Amino acid sequence: MRTDIQTSTHNGLGSLVLDRPQALNSLSLDMIRTLAQSLHAWQKDQRVRAVVISSTLPKAFCAGGDIHFFHEVAVGGLTGGSALLEDFFTEEYALNYLIHHYPKPYIALLDGIVMGGGMGISQSSAAQSIRVVTERTRMAMPEVNIGLFPDVGGGYFLSRLPGELGTYLGLTGEIIGADDALYANLADVFVPRAELPALMNLIESVDDHQYRQATEAFAAPFAAQINPANSMLAKQRPLIDRHFSHDSVAAITASLAKDDTPFSQKTLNTIRKRSPLMVCVSLEQIRRSAHMELADCLRLERTMVRRCFEHGETVEGIRALVIDKDNAPQWNPASLQDVTPEMIAPFFTSAWPDYAHPLRELA
Length: 363
Hints:
It is a single chain. Helices cover 45% and strands 10% of the residues. By secondary structure, the protein is of the alpha/beta class. It has a single domain (5-356), classed as 2-enoyl-CoA Hydratase, Chain A, domain 1. The protein has a six-stranded mixed sheet with strand order 1-2-3-5-7-9, sandwiched between helices. The protein has a three-stranded parallel sheet with strand order 4-6-8. α1 links the parallel β2 (13-18) and β3. α1 (29-42) packs parallel to α3 (81-100), α3 (81-100) runs antiparallel to α14 (294-311) and α6 (165-172) runs antiparallel to α13 (276-289). The longest helix has 20 residues, at 81-100. Residues 14-348 form the Enoyl-CoA hydratase/isomerase domain. Keywords: Hydrolase. This is Enoyl-CoA hydratase/isomerase family protein. It comes from Herminiimonas aquatilis. Pfam families: ECH_2.
């Protein structure tokens, strides 16, 4: 029987290998459960000293959540789908929390596409954890493209990036490469893809728990192949910090509109193509999350994602981008100037009392 995640233990390592090629490793509920089950078991297993997560695919680590599943559920094409959708986000966000606070080193080999849900299973602050990017890395939090918001803890980690880089990435959904990921503190080291097998051999030989130090030493000779200080984000940082420091989307777009530089005009046009409502909701989320712990951010996002499906914006975004592929979403409302505070507020009003929240047990 085929499984979309290969799990194994060897030489003190727990190995998680994403293997769903037909969907670029987009996460299904079964995959989320397999990841969670393995990680829960290994955190108590003294034979497992560290965890490595990687992919079998040459062009993708993980493209995000299974948005075809989201759409099928939302339009009523799956028996019991509503409950499964609720389970998906509850269990995915609980998994994100587990990974972020994992008690053992968590090593993510981010080769290829790393977007949305793929970011959620790779951003860990556990001791000795490390995020490795390659020349093929393409990273993004692109949720506003489909009428969603940067979830899987996105409010937490985007709001903590240098300056306004997280605001820019969350509101535009732009794709960045390895140099930008390193500059923005969304990755730790660069290793050429061809060297990943050698890196894995090294990691398997570590016997003193110094996985981060060993990986950094391995990556050091390749540092000259990449220049984060000369990345797109580095070059445009002054403009990003200036325009995205405002606390309303109207002020951000007005600031961009007054700047005739190619970057600012391109960015303005990008924002205008996204869901007006969800761009505004995402900005509010990022600003609030800057002052919240991860557990509270995930609880907030759990309410927000339910509101997205209640509103219908996410369903329309997926239809236009992925199902019908007409790239002509009928956003509601259709323009930024039509978004009111009354439209934004429900996304931040909890769908449950505290005692009944599905993520109430997160510390």
